[in-house]
Amino acid sequence: MGVRRNFVPRRWRATPYFDFRAGLGDINAKGPLGVRFAQGQNFTFTLNMGSGLRYNFSPRYSFSAGLNWMHIFNLHLSQPKFLDYGINVWGPMVGLDIRLDVRHRHAKGNQ
């Protein structure tokens, strides 16, 4: 789940944005015994922050590109207890955005 803030009106073709997301995940922890900086358990939490530019082809389709940061951590919930080093990742993010809502159009003369 997350939020995205666009910095200019929607009718513009190019729109800079900032977004923040949080979620749950499942990884293959492989440790932590004998593995330096391992997570200690498979269940994880994730935080994402990013910024970039979205280009609108039409009201329904757009392309976005930007830079994203992700932090994966276990919130010290592993049993037995191990240090939670977390995993930090920086990288590019590209995507094709498709608006799923249906816009209601009123027929001419119907109010």
Structure description:
By secondary structure, the protein is mainly beta. It has one domain. The model has no long low-confidence stretch (mean pLDDT 81).
Structural features:
single chain, mainly beta, elongated
The number of helical elements comes to 0
In order across it, which strands form the biggest sheet? 1-2-3-4-5
- Estimate the global geometry from the Cα principal axes: elongated
Strand content: over 45%
The rounded distance between the terminal residues' Cα atoms is 36 Å
Query: What gyration radius follows from the Cα positions, in whole Å?
Result: 20 Å
Compressed to H and E, one letter per element, the order equals EEEEE
The percent of residues in helical segments reads: under 10%
Query: Major β-sheet, in short?
Result: 5 strands, antiparallel
Number of strands: 5
The total number of structural domains is 1
**What ranges have pLDDT less than 50 throughout 5 or more consecutive residues?**
none
Oligomer: single chain
> What is the residue-averaged pLDDT?
81
Alpha-beta classification = mainly beta
Quick overview of this protein structure:
Helix content is 0%, strand content 51%. By secondary structure, the chain is mainly β.
Task: Please specify the SSE layout and strand pairing.
Elements: E1 2-6, E2 14-26, E3 43-56, E4 61-73, E5 87-98
Antiparallel strand pairs: 1-2, 2-3, 3-4, 4-5
